[in-house]
Amino acid sequence: MNTVKNSQPEDRRRKAVPDDSVAIDSFDSPSPVSQMPPGPSSLTAGEKGELRCGYIALIGAPNAGKSTLLNQLIGRKLAIVTPKVQTTRSRLLGIAIEGATQLIFVDTPGIFEPRRRLDRAMVAAAWAGAADADQVVQLVDATRPEAGDTRRIIEQLAAGKRRAVLALNKIDLVRREKLLAMADTLFQAGVFEKVFMISGLKGDGVADLRHYLAGLMPAGPWLFPEDQLSDAAERWLAAEITREQVFLQLHDELPYAAAVETEAWEERKDGSARIDQVIYVQRAGQRAIVLGDKGQRIKSIGARARAELERLLDRRIHLFLFVKVRDNWVDDPERYAALGLDFNV
After folding, report:
1. Which domains does the chain have, with CATH numbers?
2. CA 157 → CA 199, 241, 281, distances in Å?
3. Residues 31-57: pLDDT tens digits?
4. What is the mean pLDDT of residues 256-276?
5. Residue 310 CB-half CA count within 13 A
């Protein structure tokens, strides 16, 4: 089964390893592989009836659970997930089939009060995803429903006269009586046409949400092959998987000062692939932290990223990581283009 479409141009050849880079082939390092439940089964062509297809934007405050929900909706881990806020930096499509309907979910960065250029670009990408969608789902973290970012999103939806579906997430962490009052209060804002109580992590209520959204999609042909889970290039997804480990294994502000790019991708005759990636940081001291004592930290990042890549791509992967200092990457238009973000917002 195809997972993604690889549409990127041919690899740029790396002439030599710079002095500030370290290569790690992490193939032999063991690492657990996460599992997701199987996605919804699709129907045969004769059973589909009238075809429907549409885009659904998942929006919400940082850490509301959008990426976790996307993974549940499509039945596979596609979006990276970490406990840290603002992990998602750009839009990602996830594709699911519900009966005769193809649902194209758009995972967006968290919407918050931006302070830097990168913040503004991420928030702009989120609202662009909502503007282009046939339907909007706003996720609200049930453990902090009154967060300022949540209220601002609701106000902006109301100002634009945009209706949305409310997904009250993380219900497994809140008592039922509180959930009912919370849902009623949020519904009174006047922008929500339906409320669903879900747990994106455990899957509670997700099938009902997916089924309801399928009924809202317009009639029309499917836009992607039935076995495709995303339009994202494999090399972009590979960089995201490594960045997930940067977020999970490094602390404080360092993950936010780092970016990951897939620099080269070599297909091998035995069916495996060699992937070369660069982790960009802003200062030499940050490079030392990423490397760790005697290179142990980058080996750990590479081992876990490699295991996730093998799970996603279903084949053997040789992963080589390089660390480079680029003090102005957060103000570099080329880096924004690689992330799919608008540098000029």
Report:
1. 45-216 (3.40.50.300), 234-339 (3.30.300.20)
2. 23, 32, 36
3. 333 334 444 444 444 455 799 999 999
4. 95
5. 21
**Cβ-contact 145, 173 below 8 angstroms:** no
What sign for the dihedral angle of Cα 300, 305, 308, 309? negative
What SS3 state is found at 192?
A: strand
Strands, E assignment, 46-185: 52-60, 92-98, 101-107, 135-141, 164-169
Smallest Cα–Cα separation from 170: which of 136, 142, 212?
A: 142
Query: Contact, 289 vs 250, CB < 8 A?
Result: yes
Buried b (16+ CB within 10 A) or exposed e, 238-258: bbbbbbbbbbbbbeeebbbbb
> In the prediction, which pLDDT does 328 show?
79
pTM for the full model? 0.83
Report d(CA 66, CA 57) in Å as an integer: 10
Structure tokens at 58: 């998942």
- Check residue 42 and report its DSSP letter: P
